[in-house]
Each structure stands twice: as C-alpha cells, then as structure tokens.
Amino acid sequence: MMKRSTYVAKIGVPALIVLAVTLGIVLEGCAKKNQSSNSPATIAPSALAGSGSAVSIATPSSSTYLSNGNSVNVAGACAPGAALSIEGDVAVGDMINPSNSLSSTCANDGTFSLDIGKASDATFNIIVHQTSINDTSASVAWTRDATAPAQPVISAPSATPYASNQNSVLITASCEIGATVILSGDDSQSAACSSGSVDFNVPKSSDNFYSLDISQADPAGNNSSSSNLVCNRDTVAPSVPVILNPAVNSITSSNATLAISGSCEPQALVVLSGADNQSFTCTGGSSFSFSVTSIVADGTYDFLVGQSDPAGNNSGQASQRWIKDSSMPSTPVITAPLASPFYSNLNSLTIAGSCTNGYSVNLSGSASGSMTCAGNAFSFNVNSAVDGNFAYNISQMNLAGTSSPDAVQNWIRDTSPPSTPVLSSPASSPHYSNLTSLTIAGSCEAGSTVMLSGPSSSNQACSGGLTFSFTETQSVDGTYNYSVSQVDLAGNASITSASAQWILDRAAPSAPTVTSPSPNPFISGDTNIVITGACEDSATVNLNGASSSSVVCASSAYSFNVSKSSDGTYNFVLAQTDRAGNASTNTNFQWVRDTSIPATPTLISPASNPYYSNGSLAGGNLNVIIGCQGTNLVTIDDGITALNAACASGQASFVVATAGEGLNNYTITQETASFISSSSLNFDWNDDRTAPVGLSILNPPTSPYTVSGNLTLSGACENFATVALSGDDAQSVACASSAYSFSIAKAVDATYNFSIMQTDLAGNISGTLNQQWIRNSTVPPAPTIASPSASPFYSNLSSLTLSGGCASGMTVILGGVLASDVTSPAGSLSQLCIAGAYSYTIAKSADATYALTVKQQDGLGNMSPNANLSWVRDTVASTVTLSTNPAAINYALDSAFTYTASASASPNSFECQLDGAVYASCVSTGISYSALSLGNHTFYIRAKDAAGNTGAATSYTWNQQGHYTVALYHLNNAAPTVDSGLYTASNTLTASATAPANEPTGKFAEARTFNSASTTNYRANDSVSLNTLANGVFTIESWVQFNSLPSNNSNRFTIAEQSSTASTATRGWAFSVTNSTGYKIRLTVYGPSSTSAVTKYSNAITIATGSGSTNWYHVAVTYNKGAYAFYLNGTQVGTGTFTTTAINNSTTQLYIGATNGGGSRKFNGDIDELRISQSIRYNGNFTPSASAFSPVPGTTD
Fold this sequence. Notes:
The chain is mainly β. Helices cover 3% and strands 46% of the residues. It is built from four helices and 94 strands. Strands 80, 82, 83, 85, 90, 91, 92 and 94 form an eight-stranded antiparallel sheet that branches. A seven-stranded antiparallel sheet has the order 81-84-93-86-87-88-89, with no helix packed on it.
C-alpha cells in the first residue's frame, strides 16, 4: 500500500497550487454539508448551476481522495454548455463516462459528472478543464489503494499460547501508520496506529484460556488478516515436583555424581538449588533430570527442587539430601564364637558381633546372608549336616555402598570322636610303686582337652608337643584306678579311655625261703644244684654271693641253677624285690661241694616233679627211674617202705605203689660201697582223681550280658589248672592266684556264646560254664541343655545350674570342670538320668570362660557326643568414658553425647538418664537432647553387660543457654540498649557517637530513629551467643519504617550486621533493604574472608516512606545451612540456596542501623524490635505477631 507521504510526490507542485486554490472552496463546501472526505457526494443541480461559473469539483469533496475502488466519480459545477476537457493522468481508455473520450460538455443545469477507472494502484491527478466559457480548471488527486495492509505482528507477548498469573496482559503489535488496529475475540478494542506499533491492555479476572485476534484496516478500507494470540491466565501454582530418583529423601553414596530426577508439570521450568544450581525445562513429557557433578569432597549436601510454570507461578520445593561418603567403613568385630577357627560338633553355629547401626552386614563364603545392623549388633546362624572346614566372611556396607574389609570366621564342624589317649607313663598297668606320686602321661590329639578321672579329676590342654602329663599323689597304700579320655576342640569325647592302675605298696615282702636243696647248709658232691623256694608272686628274686642271677617269682616259686666245678663251700644270699620296689630281708644258703661223697640222684622218669596222676596208671603203680653213678646202692623211701636197687648203667628202676588217692612223698639217695651216702632227692607223686573245683565267672556279672566294644571274661579257678575258652572264641590260660581272665574282641555287633572249663595238673576236667555276650555299640544321642538356654551364657554369679534332658537310666557325665567344682551332686562328675532329666550345680570363684560338656553313657558303655555350653563368668562391670559432650556453657541447639565402654568379657549395652529421670536404654552410637530448658542439666550414663553387671554411672553437668533467641532488642525509650534474650551473657548494645533518637510512636511502644549518619548506630561486642550463628541456622527479623528509600544497591539500608570493628576484617552476615532493579530484602553471608561474600535477594517488594505509626514493615530472613527465605509482612518473597554454608564468626560484633564500614550502607528510618534467633521460626507464610517480640521458642511470637 502506498503511504500518504507519497501522495504529494505523485500530485506534483503545479497541482498543489491548483489544489490550494480550490481547497478552500471544497473545504467550505464540506464544512457546510458535513460530508466525509472519502465519501462521494451527490450535488443537486441547482447547487452547482451558475452561468459563466468557473469549473469546480464537488465530488470527491477533498482535493485528495483515497479509495480502494477501481473507479472514481468526479462531479462538479461548470458553465452550462461549456466544453470540458479531461486532462492530467487520465488516458482515453480510462474514461468510463463519457466512454473512451477525454471531452465532455457541461450540462444545462451547470453540472458535470465523469467516471474514470484505473487498474493499478497509484495517485492520479485528474484535471477538469472548462475551455469554452470562463476558461478555468479544477483538479483532484485520486489515490487508488486496493492493497490490504500487512497482518499485524504481535511482538509481546512473544509466544502463543502465553501464560500469565497477572490480572491483565499487555499486547504489543506492529501496525501500518494511519491504520485502525482492531482487537477482537475474547475482548474488543481498537486503536489508531500512529507510530508503527500499538498496545492493548486486556484485563482478565478469572483463570481461563482467552483467544484474541488483532487485525488492521487502512484508510482505504482494506482489511488485513488477523494474528491470533492465546492467553492463559493461570494463578494456580504448580504442585511441588516429585523426586523419584533417589527414591529416598536422604541418600548416602560414594559416587562422584548424583542423579536427581522426577516428575514435573509440562512446560514448567524446574530449578535445582542448594548445593548445586541448575535448571531444566519440563518438555517432551512430564519429567526432569539433573546430574550433579560439581561436588568433590565428602559431606552432607542439601538440594531443593522447585518449578515455575509458564505463568510465573512458583511451586513449593522438594528437598533432597545427599550424604557423599567415600570413606571405607570399619571391619565388623566378631564376638561370638570367641575363637577362629571355632570347633564344634553341632549342626549350627551362631556368628555374632558388633557393627555400625544402619549399615548392611553381609555374610559370604560357605554361606551367604545379609541383615541390617541394629543396636550395633549382628547375628547369623549357619548350618551344616556334614563335617568340614567352613570359612565365612563378614563385612559391612555403609549407606554409600562402600564395603569394609572382611572379618573372617572359620568353623570346623567335627563329629568324629578323638582316639583314646595313649599312655606312656606308667609304662604298664597295673603300675606298682612305693612312691607317693605318680606321673600319668602320654600322647593326645592337638587342641584337645585331656581329662583325668579316678580318685581325683583334672583337665589340661593337649600341649604343643601333642602330649599331656598329670601328677597324682596318694598317701595311703592301696590300688588306685585312673582313666584318661580326651575331648577334642569340637566337643567330641573319645569313645574309650586309657586306664592306669596304680598300686601303691610301701610294705616290704618277706624274705624268700629255700625249700631245695635241703638241708641248709647243703653238702653234696653235685656239680649242679637247683636252688628253689617260695617267693611273692611277681617279685624279682635276686641270687647273690657265690653266684649271681635274678628271676621273677611265678606261681609263688623261684628256681636258680647253680653250677660249680670244684669242691668248696659256697655261700649264697637270696632276697626279693616286689613290683613296687620294696626289698625283703636276706635269706642265706650254703652249699658245700664235696666230690668225696656221691652226687645227689636225679629224677629221670616221671619227667616232672611233683608228678600228677588221676588213677589212670596200670595197676595203680608208678615206674620211677633214678639217675645214679657206678654201682651205688639207690634207695627210695616213702617213710614207710624203703626200696633199694643197684645202679646199673647210670640208672636204677623202681615200681612204687600208692595206697590210694593222695600225695606221696619220696626221699631218694645213693650210697657207695664204703657206705658214704649222697644228699637226698625229694620226689612228690600226687595221685589226684578229683575233678578241679572253684571254676566261676565273675565278670560279666550276668548272662546274657550286653556291652559295647570288647568283652573281658574273668573269674575264679583252681590254681595251676588250665582254663579253656571255647565257642565263638578259643583261648586257654593257666590259672594263677586262683584267677583267670580272657579278653575277647569282636568288630561286629551280634550275640556271641562261649563255654569255659578247667583241667587240673592231674588231667581231671571240671564241668562247663556258659556265657552269652550281646555286643551293642549303638551310640546314644547327646543330652540336651535346657538351662542356660543360650551359649555363650554370660553371668556374674559364682555358681551355674546346668540342666537338661537325657535318656532315663543312662549316666550323664559332666566335663570341663573338676569334681571339686560340682556342688550338686557334690563332688561328682556323673549322675544317673532320672525321669529324663539331669542337673548339675557348678561353682567357680574366678572370672573366665568355661567350656562345659555333658554326655551320656548307656549301660553298655556306649558314649554319646557332647552337648556344649560356654559359660562366661564375668563379675567386672565396664566403665563409660564420654568421647564428646556439650560445652560447659552450651549455646548450641542440641546437647549431644558420644561414649565408649571399657573392655569387657561380656557384650555391653548402655543406659542413659537426664536430670535424675529413670534410666532408659540408649544406643551405642550416642544420644542427643533438643530443646532443653535453660539452666543446669546433668547427664548420666552407665554400661550394663550381658552378665548382669551394671557399672558406676559417668556423669556430666553443663549449663544450657537460650538456644532460640540469641539477642532481642525492643529499642524502647526506657531501655533501648538492653538485650531481652534468655542468654545469661547478654549482648548489651552500646550507642555510637550519636545515639539513635527516640521515636515516640513505634510499632508497639517507642522505636529508634536512624538518620543514615555513619555515627548513628548501635553495636554489641563479640560473644559466644552471637557466634552460635556460625552453626548456620538463624532467623533475623525486625519492624522497620523508612524515612527515605534506598536509591541503588550501594545505598542499601542496613538493619543489622555481624562484623568486625576493623573495616578490613571479615564479617559474618549482613541484613538490609536495598534497591537492585526494585526494592528488595538482601542477605549477605561472609565466609573465611571478606572476599568470599555471597549475597542473595528477595523478589521485588513494595515499600513506601512513612512516619509515626504509618507504614511499618515486618522484614525477616531465615537461613538453614545455606537454604534461605525472605519475608515481608509474613509473606514469603523469595527462597533459594547459598552456594556456601560457611559463616565467619571470628571476633565479630553486632551492628544495628549501619555497617562497620560506614559509607552509604546506613539505615534511614525507624527500627522497632530486632530479634536474632538460633532457629528457623518461619517455614512459610505467617501472620506477624500483634505484640512485641518474645524471647521464648515459638513460631510467630
């Protein structure tokens, strides 16, 4: 479309002159007729007629005419009949009326009417020239504009749909100057375009979507197309974003990055603040995702996630805590079992110990499992039905997923009983000794406990050399029977015991007797003699003197063969030493060898002397052949009858008869022709026709007899008889000391039958005795332990009752203690199981761990496995040491304690008490008390172990200061500098060179006026209470009124500041109102140096000046470990998170109304009420209190 500024160029200067002349006429006519310049007029002929009139144009009514039509009607007044010429920018072909003619004639009524057409847009100068009458001309500039104006471009808002939470929306659109811009749709407005753009302010009072169209119409009547804008009025804040990952509000990990993701409102801007700052547009769905990679150091990091919808509504914030922990947790401590490897013959094992609360404790190796550490303890039960060496690893994983090194526990399950100990001392059993002490020693299994029982009982560990040694002492002669067994590390007892019999014998035996040769002295011409006599069985008979020899006395007799080759007198000394080593007195024997007398005859037949027969000799006679010399006369004499026979060929034969059964004694000599007689040979013939008697079975006591293992069959018999065993075993043994014994071994359980009989020396056979043995080696089950119910069992008592179930009739045997330790049954390590139960009471006076065993033995001797109990006797209570505690004067919010207990044989727990209340259990990781009343408090803690020992209490007393209000100033006229807080060490204010003036009409009473002079302020010296703000939790609030408003960010109005007196020193924090692209509340937090200051601002606020009681504002800020919130009159006006949470507290003072640096950062107005609290008093919008601030805890008081 051609702009109006181009019209002049198209008309040209000459035309302007014509226009100027005619303009007045035309305008005058327009004014009179009130006719639109763009609307053709119909003029009555009478109005135009005029003889000799100059030509004039009435239609169009203006000298410039704008239209979007294809033709224009030009009409006016002229001189009737005058010739008219159409000139200017009109061609013949443009003429419609008259058609194709540039000439026309003025009508009789003095008017003319021409229709001129154009096919293109331009400005055309149309001249009507009256040539014949009154040669005059009139012209009009017709601008043909059929081009529609451009579609308006909406530049603000910049996008559609446009969301807003305001009550109106300002729409800016481009337009064609001179055009009329039309707003339609859900609102109707129009505006003239005068500068190329137009603004519409569209008010809306309710939330909805509104569709608005903007178009424009140019002066030619052309209409543009419309631009559409959809506006969404939305005052509803989006919901708080939902954090889905991490799945928990506080996550601990060792990862270098943290992913935070969740659900959000589509198109909303999701903002992460706190320990990291990021933003994310919730597009392409309804989820957001942040990856935190900037945090390197371990620590606790807090994040906030909020969202802002396109309308500018802000949601609340979801919180997420990340405890970044790359440290390795400590190794769990295994407290049960007490040793590794741990030996046991049970099917299960409990592995327990201490760990860190909340950590995951993991079992791996021969079994697997996992549990959460609770009460600083863990416990796993592992099982196995087979023997073996099982290895277990225990580790703990902290909340960050880092695992500790392993604690290792080995379990050796062993149900095989150890072998019977092998005795090396005494070398034989029975062992005879005349000493009052005996060493019982031998070899054993590594790690086992060797148990000696008998007249006394004792236990000892098998030494490293796999040996043991007991020393037993007795003062009375007698027979002492001992048994030695061993219990391996798993609690298995050897099935059988090694036996040692000690015969203490300090009585000397009698001297041996000499029964042959006889008499004594004995005179003979023999070369060899046999010295025989009576002795003590098993004693050693020693021959000394003319010959030396020794023999063991057997069957109460001894015999020495002595040979001499020359005549002479030989003296011999005989004595005997019994098996205990006792020596007898001496017996003297003399032999005079004199070969001038014949030798003593010898017995050739029968072969034995004495000789036994049982009446079976023919005729009852006995042939006796005597060895002799030469032709000596041999005489055999029974004391009644003497028979003689000459020696021939070295022999003499006799037939002797017996009058009947009985013992016949004969004396045999030989005599030379010169009547020299030899010594006598004594010969005994015992004709015994009576069967031997006295055969009996003394052991086993019954038949049939049931026993496990091997069988000993023994009893009484006739001395010197041969006892024969037959049946399922065959043995024979000579009866000695009227007793016999057979040891019968069988490997298989079965029923075995035996017979025994005896044959005496005469060949007489006794009757038969029968014995049946039922071999049964079935192992009975181990007895049960019902009380105590747990192992290890912790106790501080000096006695323990061990009881449980057993098989009635069996013998229950206690191990691991001495018989003297047992008080019930007194002094006994065994008792009969009655009614399926047993009970032992054991007394111990020393603290130790006692490994107790009980087993049961059936009547056959079969021994069960052990049942085991570990008794930890512990009478020593642990003491508690405080590791950390509150300061003696505590300004902190919490009063926290950590503690440890001294080493104990029993696991410890803790009991805590505050200010004399009842003791209650407290966890081992520590305890913390919050919101305590102000003043002195005393904390007590004591340890209580599993044995029941309760230690003496450890106590700590401290003074709890006000942990809410650090400082409170009412700033009233009576006491403007008084700190009304609860701390005992108050922060009294000191006025500067010029004290702030009193304002009599404060918010509640009087106030203080600060006039922006650097010398008008208050300050309080550095104090421990002020320094508690460095903990990173506080609320600062005040009622203020402005005399003027800050002009810029440098001209901020300081309400309060914690800083040093030196202008270059570090500050703690500063709270002010400023002007930073709008009035805002400002908080600056200073780190270790003044260069590390971080400043945050509220949203823009509306404030005004005032005086007296008008325009008081409650301003507040909360700071929680970096997270901040600003409030104006109880409305939250901004939240966020500082990138640093460290606050300096070194030698800083409190300033009110100014900073320590002076400059332009001074308050100009009134301050009434300033409260600084070490707590978060506000967590959202609130109504400020209608009364002066209170120092006590509260929300809005």
